[in-house]
Write a structure and sequence with these properties.
Layout: E1 4-10, E2 16-22, E3 29-32, E4 35-38, E5 47-48, H1 51-60, E6 63-67, H2 69-77, E7 87-89, E8 92-98
Length: 101
């Protein structure tokens, strides 16, 4: 199982945005047509987070951006997203989830 890297961003109004990425693709950039998935930016450069903490972080978030088979698959498995919302760029699945509270 690959590690999932998570970076927590907090907006000025206190809302939490999570960036999740599979460890093995962190630092790479993928392009397909006009679509670009930039995993080299600081936006995704967080830390490996264990599942229990990751679940808690995801429940507190209002927005989650995730890239990679492990990260996206984990979110779907936990019920945060559905497969039809996945976008694939150069074979890398990614998803953006807005969580209504």
């Amino acid at each position: 199982m690959r590690k999932i890297i998570v970076k927590k961003h907090t907006t000025d109004d206190g809302r939490v945005l999570l960036a999740m990425c599979d460890e093995d693709i962190l630092g790479e950039t993928f392009e397909e047509g006009e679509a670009v998935l930039d995993l080299a930016s600081d936006f995704y450069k967080g830390e490996a987070v264990e599942e229990e903490e990751r679940s808690s972080m995801a429940e507190d978030a209002y927005l989650i951006n995730a890239a990679g088979k492990e990260s996206v698959g984990w979110l779907i498995g936990k019920g945060f997203a559905e497969e039809e919302n996945i976008i694939t760029i150069q074979g890398v699945p990614n998803i953006q989830i807005l969580i209504e509270k």
